[in-house]
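Subject: HTH-type transcriptional regulator

B.,
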Amino acid sequence: MTGTKQTADTNCPVARSVDVAGDRWTILVLRELYMGATRFEEIQIQTEATPQMLASRLKALEADGMVARHPYSEKPLRHEYRLTDKGWAFYPVIYALRAFGENWCKHDEEVAMHFVHRACGHDVGLANVCPHCGEPVERKDLDATMGERFAAERTARREAFRRR
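Prediction pasted inline below.
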């Protein structure tokens, strides 16, 4: 899964990028990190990955420089995961996947996430340029809120995990 393993013999940037983040579980892990999750259990709950699957994806993301581990507890030793600059640089890919999914993979469901441009206070919809003021926007420029159904889905996952 790391960029040095499978496609080191190609100059193709798409192939190399797919090695870093080209599977469902890695994309979902990154989604959770962008949504503010930093701890293993939080990420596991929302991705529904097995502990082994999540651990392997986090290790690969760390090896590729996308995330960094930081201890938050000494006894027992526990780490949280934070996006690096390289990890944040991947955000436009997730944003594009979101836009594609909202446009092509849903029916009449509400938008899962709403993004409001902090500078002007208007919803940017699925764009990366604010339709109100015309400014290009990055994640750091936006306030996010979940749609009701997406929020309920995430709450249900958390409750189901705690009932185990």
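The longest helix spans residues 148-163.

T.
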